[in-house]
Design a protein that fits this description.
Helices cover 34% and strands 25% of the residues. The protein has 387 residues and is α+β, with helices and mostly antiparallel strands. Strand 17 and strand 18 form a beta hairpin. Helix 3 packs across helix 4 and helix 6 crosses helix 7. The longest helix has 23 residues. Bound molecules: 3-hydroxy-3-methylglutaryl-coenzyme A.
Length: 387
């Protein structure tokens, strides 16, 4: 039985900060960002946008195409959760008015949780083909101002419907994984921003890739040449380039500059202008590949490398399904990105400091253009609005 992603759609916020404005403010050569880390823009969430409103924006176009009462579970992956007890998925469930005959749970392990939720969903469907699981990966990447991580912020959500006989990609059984207790990036409970040992984190990322790849080859017997397209977790696009160089080296494959570009560039177009979206970032990269490769990918194999600091990593693959191009929502993706409004550095800072969900009561000024927004907090309870 084939099981995998039947529909996929991603969302991002209505605002961005250009790294040109950022570089000017910090008096840094902009090429450090454009070339050095391979980033141009960061999507910035206004105070009335959180992972629930981003997730609703990502999921709604999928639900419009199916009987939404057929969703049997929501697996919500995030490290920017809105409550320590109640899952973000239950807020989403209410906002989208889904059937009560549905299970909902939140997944967490840094950027890895999106891949974990997808793998869990495929296991659920293999066990019971009647299951239709809505997987959400949604995050707002936030670091302290004036730290090395500040230029690598961003936000986004990806919704994926996981079913049997999927129309887009069948996820193949067999994967390679790697876990190691390290402190490369973390966010203690009392903090709103992540702490990071930046350079160390890039080393652990590459080490985990080598370990997960080794395990993957032992488990599946597949080689580099069995894979036509490569998707990586993309905290910034240069990291994915380094990952692909490392993988080719470990697999003893020599790539011409043209081959290297063809295997990496299409999956990086969106991430370069959206920024890091933690758990969603790997799947934003997959959407970017689907929308920006001008070739038909039917029957080709795509690999996914998920890395979550701390750290857990997994390498797995899927097979593109014939006719997949008919169900893509590329126009919506492009429109959202193009319609974002640029922020000055001062406007970005105002958004950055205004978010304070520790307050008991607040009504947020309307910045989020919808269709879903966080309207306020009353008696410590978040309430949302459909516009
Ligand atoms: P930094 O100190 O700002 O930058 O840190 P740098 O001085 O290392 O420069 C970066 C690159 O730009 C270097 O190239 C420079 O040579 C180059 P490299 O040596 O890396 O190839 N450069 C220039 N190039 C052209 N023109 C110039 C110029 N100047 C410099 N004028 C760092 C960079 C990535 C460490 C920082 O941005 C950071 O801390 N980011 C956050 C952490 C991160 O993203 N880590 C990635 C791996 S961990 C991960 O992916 C998990 C994560 O998503 C979280 C999760 O799992 O939840 C983060």
């Amino acid at each position: 039985m084939n099981v995998g992603i039947d529909l996929i759609h991603f969302s991002t916020s209505d605002y961005y900060l250009g790294l040109d404005a950022f570089a000017e403010e910090k008096n840094i050569d902009v090429d450090k960002f454009y070339i050095g880390i391979g980033q141009e823009k960061m999507s910035i969430a206004p105070p009335d946008e959180d992972v629930v409103s981003l997730a609703a924006k990502a999921a709604a176009p999928i639900l419009e195409q199916i009987d939404k009462n057929s969703i049997t579970a929501i697996l919500f992956a995030t490290e920017s959760g809105v409550d320590q007890s109640k899952s973000a998925g239950v807020f989403l469930h209410g906002l989208l008015n889904l059937s009560s005959r549905c299970r909902v749970i939140e997944f967490k392990h840094a950027c890895y949780s999106g891949a974990a939720a997808l793998q869990m969903a495929t296991t659920m469907v293999r066990a019971n083909p009647k299951e239709k699981v809505l997987v959400i990966a949604a995050d707002i990447a936030k670091y302290d101002v004036d730290t090395s991580g500040e230029a690598t912020q961003g936000c986004g959500a990806v919704a994926m419907l996981v079913t049997e006989s999927p129309r887009i990609i069948a996820i193949e059984p067999g994967s390679g994984y790697h876990t190691e207790d390290v402190m490369d990036f973390w966010r203690p409970n009392q903090r709103k921003t992540a702490l990071v040992d930046g350079k160390y984190s890039t080393k652990v990322y590459l080490h985990s890739l080598k370990q997960a790849w080794q395990h993957f080859t032992e488990e599946t017997g597949r080689t580099f040449d069995d894979i036509q397209h490569f998707c990586y977790h993309i905290p910034f696009t240069k990291m994915a380039d380094k990952a692909h160089q490392t993988l080719a080296k470990v697999a003893k494959v020599k790539l011409s500059p043209q081959e290297f570009k063809a295997q990496t560039l299409p999956s990086q177009v969106y991430n370069r202008i959206v920024g890091n979206s933690y758990s969603a970032s790997l799947f934003v990269g997959f959407c970017s590949l689907l929308d920006n490769l001008n070739e038909n990918m039917a029957n080709r194999r795509v690999s996914f490398f998920s890395y979550g600091s701390g750290c857990v990593a997994e390498f797995f693959t899927g097979l593109m399904q014939p006719g997949y191009e008919k169900v893509l929502m590329s126009t919506s993706h492009r429109k959202q990105i193009e319609q974002r409004h640029p922020l000055t550095y001062a406007e970005y800072l105002a958004f950055y400091h205004e978010v304070d969900d520790e307050v008991e009561n607040i009504e947020f000024e309307r910045h989020n253009k919808g269709p879903y927004r966080l309207a306020g907090i009353k008696d410590h309870k978040r309430y949302y609005q459909t516009l």
